[in-house]
Write a structure and sequence with these properties.
This protein has about 550 residues and is mainly β. Strands 1, 4, 6, 9, 12 and 14 form a 6-stranded antiparallel sheet that branches.
Length: about 550
């Protein structure tokens, strides 16, 4: 028997695509929704949907869908029409009733409620249902390309699923061994569209409610492993993150490295690597390198065995050991008080675990500029989180490597700790070896861009810097930090850091020119340049003047 079996509803369909409104792009025919097969209507008839409540507030006979067989789950692709939630209608309105009848005469009636078992079409913003999911999965943004206008969206990395037309809701059969006779679709006077019904024969949640797990990717062949990093992971019945390179050296080499607190060399090769995967057991996980498939494996088998080698070019290993939500405190060894610093956590396999509110990979390990700044810094392979001395977040159970630093006046630490099941607290300490402030010497950074004033305070305190000169500037049509200028210094509440928001005057590459026949000065980075009158009204000499200046 197949794992999922779509039912043919074409003989029962009473409505066409027009019920969804003009311009709708509803998927019809044989479809795969979240990796599950569905049959929506038929290519030989105009009617493709079962529409309940076509006559508002009128009694309608139930639509009886024959089943004649067993099923562990019944998955319905449907959508609520004519939603009034945005007009104040409460969530939870019953818009239909589905009755699951067994061949022995027993029946189970399930109310279908808006915002619970079904969602509205078109979808109002923020009105996804609680017990149903869109007909597509969440997906990753294009990793290396895209439209300029989508730059901000690209930084989110993941794109939340938005229904093309339907929502999937799964009924879990309490008597999977008992044959079903039919599914009755009963109207309660509200318009509801049923696009397809699929029977599930596997003992799994077809909509997938499992959390993501880290999977280590190893390419056994040297010619594959040494290629420039270009891996991707695909999952048909689930989701996966981007793949990221793991450190080239093991934990012991990392702990023994001489540059404690100052990152490590980036591994640009394709192996080893990792990705996080969330999927149902019947899902297929596929790994590709530069678009070429290296191998695939059934997710349930990989979870059960822990390791899989589907081909001679691919080895996969589940390295998720479980995790605890841990509150970490970094103390000054002399004062016993929390001390601002930057911190990095990783598992024994090298998988990073960032504190809550921080990314595991700044800029997704891409070489970007003026994107994903503030509160974090990347030094080669490592992304550090700036904290005020305390942080919290998920840490893996077992051995965890911690790398902590605070400027040049504290001895950085790189050590291994062990997180026990149920552990909620972790305390570390930094030892000060020099105190220039005591001799009235204060560290400062005179050239800082892009961060906010508050971000500058945090990062300065975490690096032992007392004074920050935050520069507002103009780079073409990019204006930076202009909203930070107040005309006075910003002093932290404890008086330990001072941030000045001043300005950076630069020469624009176009200088002072006439464009499109309009004589207007164009000096985006210069507030103190000569006026046109001072230049003798000769716009043509301006570029050479600034070059000489």
């Amino acid at each position: 028997m197949v794992d999922y079996q779509p039912l043919d509803l074409s003989a029962l369909c009473n409505a066409g695509p027009e019920v969804l409104g003009e311009g709708s792009q509803a998927p019809l025919g044989r479809q795969s929704f979240r990796g599950l097969p569905f049959l929506v209507g038929s290519s030989t008839v105009e009617k493709c949907f079962v529409l309940l409540g076509s006559t508002p507030n009128a009694a309608e006979p139930p639509v009886v869908v024959p089943v004649e067989g067993t099923a562990r789950t019944v998955i319905v692709a449907h959508a609520r029409l004519d939603s009034r939630v945005e007009q104040g209608d409460p969530a939870g309105r019953v818009v239909a009733t589905y009755v699951f009848r067994y061949q022995d005469g027993e029946a189970v009636a399930v109310p279908i409620r808006e915002r619970f078992e079904v969602g509205a079409y078109p979808l109002p913003w923020g009105q996804l249902p609680l017990l149903a999911v869109p007909d597509v999965t969440d997906r990753m943004q294009p990793r290396y390309e895209g439209n300029f206008g989508n730059t901000g969206y690209r930084q989110t990395e993941a794109e939340q699923a938005w229904p093309r037309a339907y929502y999937l809701w799964a009924w879990r059969n309490p008597r999977p061994e008992a044959p079903l006779a039919a599914v009755e679709l009963r109207s309660v006077g509200e318009r509801l569209l049923v696009a397809g019904i699929t029977l599930g024969h596997l003992d799994e949640d077809p909509l997938g409610r499992a959390t993501a797990r880290e999977v280590k990717i190893t390419l056994p062949k040297a010619e594959d492993a040494k290629k420039r990093f270009d891996l991707e992971v695909e999952v048909d019945r689930g989701v996966a993150t981007y793949a990221f390179a793991l450190p080239a050296e093991d934990t012991e080499a990392f702990l023994a490295a001489p540059f404690t607190g100052w990152g490590e060399e980036q591994n640009w090769q394709s192996s080893p690597a990792y990705a996080s995967v969330a999927a149902i057991p019947s899902a297929t996980v596929t790994v590709k390198q530069a678009g070429e498939e290296l191998g695939s494996v059934r997710w349930g088998d990989l979870e059960k065995e822990g390791v899989a080698e589907p081909t001679e070019r691919l080895r996969l290993e589940v390295v998720d050991t479980g995790r605890n939500w841990v509150h970490t405190t970094v103390l000054d060894e002399d004062t016993g008080r929390p001390v601002p610093c930057r911190i990095h956590f990783r598992s024994a396999q090298g998988v990073p675990y960032a504190p809550h509110g921080h990314p595991e990979h700044v800029n997704s390990n891409l070489d970007t500029w003026h994107v994903d700044i503030g509160g974090d810094v990347r030094l080669g392979q490592i992304s550090y989180a700036y904290i005020n001395g305390k942080c919290q977040g998920w840490l893996p159970r077992g051995d965890v490597v911690v790398d902590v630093a605070r400027g040049y006046e504290y001895e950085p630490i790189r050590t291994r700790v062990h997180i026990k099941p149920g552990q909620r607290e972790l305390t570390l300490s930094l030892k000060r070896w020099a105190n220039p402030n005591g001799d009235r010497y204060f560290a400062g950074d005179t050239h800082v861009h892009f961060v906010s004033t508050q971000g500058a305070h945090l990062e300065a305190a975490a690096e032992g810097v007392s004074i920050v000169n935050l520069l507002q500037s103009q780079w073409g049509h990019l204006y930076t930090s202009t909203e930070e200028f107040t005309g006075r210094p910003s002093v932290s509440p404890d008086g330990q850091t001072i941030v000045y928001a001043t300005q950076e005057n630069r020469q624009h590459m176009l200088g002072h020119l006439t464009l499109l026949g309009v004589k207007e000065p164009i000096m985006p980075w210069c507030s103190d340049g000569p006026s046109e009158a001072e230049m003798g009204g000769n716009m043509e000499t301006t570029l050479s003047h600034w070059a000489d200046a």
